[in-house]
Amino acid sequence: MSLSMYEASIPVFVRGLDNLAAILAKAAAHAEAKKFDGSVLVTSRLFPDMFPLARQVQIACDTAKGCAARLAGVEPPKHEDTETTFAELAARIHKAREFVSSITAAQVDQSRDKTITLPTPPPYPPMVFTGINYLTYFVLPNFYFHITTAYNILRHNGVEIGKFEYLGKPPTA
Asked: What is the pLDDT of residues 41-79, one digit of tens each?
């Protein structure tokens, strides 16, 4: 039996968003325990030309909801990029998770060969994918890149998180 488009996307996004939320909760608790303003972590970045933690979270959320919507053929919800606190980032993750969770297997499973076109800034031509290539070669690496970068920003700043927080609990059989 092969892996369906739904199985390769929606549960993966939900798990990644849940793990990201748990990592951010640990970061918020760390800031509180060490008695410093959590916005220090929210605005932290690994290198000056990289996005800060808040933007990493926003992009991870947007990547999941955008992919779910494109594969399902629905309009993704729009969220302003205004989060400046851990509570606001947690709410952003929750909204993205709720939307992604609302997408059904019936909506996604027929998208394997669907044409997905992404606009790009001029002078570049739009990126055109099949559904499976969009998911596997573009979205999943991008989704994990931003979650990993968020994890690395927090770890670099002393938040006591490890591989098991990144991976989360194993799914039940």
From this structure: 999 999 999 999 999 999 999 999 999 999 999 999 999
Q: Count how many domains the chain has.
A: 1
As a whole number of angstroms, the distance between CA 100 and CA 17 comes to: 10
Q: What is the DSSP letter of 173?
A: -
Buried b (16+ CB within 10 A) or exposed e, 46-74: beeeebbbbbbbbbbbbbbbbbbbbbbee
Name the residue range of residue 106's domain: 5-167
Instruction: Provide the CATH number for the domain around residue 65.
Output: 1.20.120.450
Which pair of tokens denotes residue 104? 């059904």
Residue spans of the chain under pLDDT 70: 1, 173
User: Can you give the pTM of this predicted structure?
Assistant: 0.95
User: Does residue 119 sit within a domain?
Assistant: yes
Does residue 172 form part of some domain? no
